[in-house]
Write a structure and sequence with these properties.
Elements: H1 3-11, H2 20-27, E1 34-37, E2 42-46, H3 53-62, E3 71-73, E4 76-78, H4 84-91, E5 101-105, H5 111-116, E6 123-127, H6 131-144, E7 149-151, E8 165-171, H7 180-189, E9 191-202, E10 211-212, E11 227-228, H8 230-239, E12 244-252, H9 269-272, E13 273-274, E14 277-281, E15 289-296
Parallel strand pairs: 2-3, 5-6, 5-8, 6-7, 8-9
Antiparallel strand pairs: 1-2, 3-4, 9-15, 10-11, 12-15, 13-14
Length: 298
Amino acid sequence: MNLDEIRKERKKWMTWKNIAPLREALGELPKLTCKLELGDVLTLTCKEEEIDSRQIEKTAKMMMPWRKGPFNLFGLFIDSEWQSQIKYNLLRPHFKLNGKRVADIGCNNGYYLFRMQEDNPEKLVGFDPSAIYKTQFDFINHFAKSDIVYELLGVEHLPFYEDKFDTIFCLGVLYHRSDPVAMLKALYKGLDKEGEVILDTFMIDGEDEICLSPKNSYSKIPNIYFVPTIPALKNWCLRAGFKKFEVLETSVTDMSEQRKTDWIDGQSLEDFLLPDDSSKTVEGYPAPKRVYVRLIKV
């Protein structure tokens, strides 16, 4: 697989009719000396007094929906659908990235990658085949000027990638794949020796080695294929080649973490659950619950 050819082809995505105006707006942004303050809210500040707040707000709103965040851009608060700091802070005690080569699969607009800079990793690479999220990242990074590498690639490209990684984050991706074991094998091949994967996925309770296979959708999401018990997930990971499987945390997604805001289009968690029983999805399945695990290659 020639990744350079894939990169060249996907660069053309930036000329799509819905993306091209966003890229033009990026080109019109001023060149400023700015600082990105790392914290629950990623905050851009600037020494220059003359920042056109209307231009910043107009550009940010052109790039809706903002799924991951939150961000504060020179006083403009982007209240993203997901309060991503909740997941990050849940996982934060479980990893150390100093001097490591790190990848984030399904990185969205790069919120987690920006946060990871506080650990001083050797390299940060985001993978996400989404023109809109890449553009959101470029919008933030225009001012932040980080060394983060953003690839318009997917997990399937990891085995062929030029670098191997010490730590790979894969948060909220596995359930979107119709062949979860194949995806886990791709993660395995993307690791260097003794590398680790920090993974999260939907789960159902139970001790049996089984999984839920939604008929048409799960929480109104059509591309959810399998929701395993923890024992079933462990079996998938061992079959993919991982030698160690460690459960780090479990959590129930609630409306303090995911909800409708003025910065998204359409519905959110409150619309995905039964109005009179939030323990079930609108389809009647168990409401979203997540398990966070560490996988070790050797």
